[in-house]
Specification:
Blueprint (H helix, E strand, L loop, with lengths): L9 H12 L6 E5 L6 H13 L16 H8 L5 E4 L12 H12 L8 E5 L7 H12 L5 E7 L7 H4 L3 E4 L5 H12 L3 H10 L4 H6 L2 H14 L2 H5 L1 H13 L3 H19 L13 H10 L2 H17 L6 H16 L9
Parallel strand pairs: 1-4, 1-5, 2-3, 3-4
The structure holds zinc ion.
């Protein structure tokens, strides 16, 4: 699949196409922007476009997605295309000097099939100092046929010397509507699910495309059950819910869902755009709470959840944190005075 499946990055793509058309493609680019928004996919599509054996359009750079080169790049078996990335199994997730040295060695030789040797470095900011220094040597005198594509969501963490050797391309997060449309088309899911995934992923399309709809919907339901007036009425039931969630090791995740729900509530209270509300299915309850909830306390709770997430290490007792937050939520919602539905 060529460039058209890179959702929301038309400007960056047009820029790269123009650079190729004018024979001004740099030897190194730094694609930077949030995680999971399509930087890596765009880099792969660029590598395919530059190596394609049957380009679909002579005027504008793109790939066919089906020829041997395109398929080999997808499968990472193309002899002139290399990927360096951190070992995701390792806790430190570093890119080591040996990884860079190996590619460096390969990239010196002429391309075997096409005109270029292309090296994609994902999460480039995770290079060790040794790896970065090794790469810098190559970037200072890159072989004429080489193209380095560095991806980073934390470009400031890269050595300035590396950044200055790369042309920078900023990738912005695609619009929610673009993500929704792509999800409906590519995943063939109902619009309500597409909207839901687009919101919870904050338009990070890479995440939305792979999320398990059934799983996230069931977690949403779990939260809805947790914050029902019936559930919040008795302190005993709050404590036992918190215990069950903590025992299932789901406290941290539940806090994320809770923060989303509180945000919805505040949004309704301040008369914000309903289109931004995540828990649309639960609007009646949200509106009932919104009438009497204490906004100051809700905002404080959001801050509290954020701090808990930042502190979330093995040393923090998440069970206690969840319990405390739920009890304070109960106060903020004055839940005990909400009439139970008939
Ligand atoms: Zn092709």
């Amino acid at each position: 699949m060529p460039f058209r499946d890179c959702i929301g990055h038309q400007t960056s793509i047009a820029f790269l196409q123009a650079a190729v058309n004018h024979e001004r493609l740099a030897h190194a680019y730094l694609f930077h922007g949030e995680d999971a928004i399509g930087k890596r996919l765009t880099a792969i599509r660029l590598a395919q476009a530059l190596s394609c054996e049957q380009p679909p359009d002579a005027e504008s750079l793109d790939s066919c997605g089906a020829c041997r080169s395109c398929r080999q790049i997808d499968a990472r078996t193309h002899p002139d295309f290399f990927v360096i990335e951190p070992d995701r199994e390792q806790a430190t997730q570093q890119i080591k000097i040996e990884q860079v040295r190996e590619i460096e060695h390969q990239i010196m030789y002429h391309p075997l099939v096409g005109e270029r040797k292309i090296c994609l470095i994902d999460d480039a900011d995770r290079m060790t100092i040794g790896a970065a220094n090794a790469l810098l040597k190559t970037l200072e005198e890159p072989p004429a046929h080489s193209l380095f594509l560095l991806m980073s969501s934390r470009p400031a963490a890269l050595p300035a010397t590396i950044r200055s050797r790369c042309q920078s391309l900023r990738f912005t997060t695609p619009a929610r509507t673009q993500v929704e449309a792509a999800l409906i088309l590519q995943r063939e899911i109902p619009p309500a699910d597409a909207r839901f995934l687009a919101i919870i992923s904050e338009s990070r399309i890479g995440e939305a495309l792979t999320a398990d709809v059934k799983d996230v919907r069931s977690r949403q339901q779990e939260l809805v059950d947790l914050v029902r007036p019936q559930s919040l009425q008795s302190i005993g039931s709050i404590l036992s819910s918190a215990e069950a969630i903590a025992k299932a090791d789901r406290a941290q995740d539940m806090l994320v869902w809770l923060a989303r729900w509180i945000r919805d509530l505040v949004l309704i209270q301040i008369g914000g755009d309903r289109d931004q509300v995540l828990y649309l299915d639960d609007l009646t309850t949200l509106e009932a709470y919104a009438k009497q909830a204490n906004t100051d306390l809700l905002l404080e709770l959001l801050r509290e959840i954020e701090l808990t997430e930042q502190r979330a290490t093995r040393h923090l007792n998440l069970h206690m944190a969840l319990e405390m937050i739920l009890l304070r939520l109960r106060d903020a919602l004055t839940a005990s005075s909400i009439p139970l539905p008939a």
